[in-house]
Each structure stands twice: as C-alpha cells, then as structure tokens.
Amino acid sequence: MNKKLVYFLCTGNSCRSQMADGYLNALGSDKYEVKSAGLEAHGLNPRAVAIMKEAGIDISNHTSDVIDPDILSKADYIITLCSHADDNCPVVRNDKAERWHWGFDDPAKATGTEDEVRDKFREVRDSIKQRIEQFLKEGW
Questions:
Q1: What pLDDT digit, counting tens, does each position of 108-134 carry?
Q2: What string of DSSP letters covers 39-67?
Q3: Residue 81 in contact with residue 55, Cβ under 8 Å?
Q4: DSSP state for residue 19 in the 8-state scheme
C-alpha cells in the first residue's frame, strides 16, 4: 500500500508539530508517512517530550527540522499548527497536496507555575490528539 505523506508544520518544530507527528505515527502509521518541520528549528522542547511520554508516546528521538522543499513538494497533506506557519509557509508548488490549518495555542509561551505550564502542555497535547483521531476517523 502506498502511504500518504502528511507534513506537519509549525514555527519552530519544537512542540505542536512534534506532538502531532508523534500521535499520527502512533495511531496511523499503517496508512500515513509522517514528517514534521518548522520555519525555523528551535530544538525539541523537553516539556513536550515529557508530556507525550505521559500519554505513552516517545518523541525523544525526534529532531527539530526546517521545512524541506522536497518533502513539501511530495506531501499529500500539509497541515500547519500555528498561524505564523500558516501565514509564512513557503509557496507550495504541489497541486496534489491538501493544505489545512489546525490552529493550537503555543504551550511554550505558557506562563505561571511549573504545574500551570505543564497543564497547558497537556491541554494542547489532548487537543492535538482529538484532531488526529478525527483526521483518522474521517479517513482522509
């Protein structure tokens, strides 16, 4: 079976796109090849790794990457997870790709106590999981 390529894009490829990558790989790797990248590479956020580990998904081996034009041109789905990436994504010369925007708050910008910040990471993680489950259920 030829797997469809899903490319998750965010500003820094450190939190949201990594979580989406982890969930789609865990729940739909039989149907999809999954990649993620950012307009910049900010490094993998340690809190994102910890929060995903709580959910039973290990993203500790992921790398924070900059958008690759070759992957972009081959993608079946290009999904931006923040408005900055949506507004600044390179021009896509790919007529077959469906381009979607799923906006989520940036948990890395959360403030407060460590517990409050972790709760924001959990909230974003759980919202991303719900959107991935909907994507899989709808069978795109």
A1: 999 999 999 999 999 999 999 999 999
A2: SS-----HHHHHHHHHTT---TT----BP
A3: no
A4: H
Domains of the chain: 4-138 (3.40.50.2300)
* Whether the predicted model's global pTM rises above the 0.85 cut: yes
For the purposes of burial, counting CB atoms within 10 Å of the CB of 2, is it exposed (0-12), middle (13-18) or buried (19 or more)?
exposed
**62-96 pLDDT, tens digit each:** 999 999 989 988 999 999 898 776 676 655 566 78
Active site residues: 10, 82, 89
* Both structure tokens of 21: 């990558």
Q: Provide the 3-class DSSP secondary structure of residue 32.
A: strand
In 3D space, the residue among 102, 101, 120 whose CA is nearest the CA of residue 110 turns out to be 120
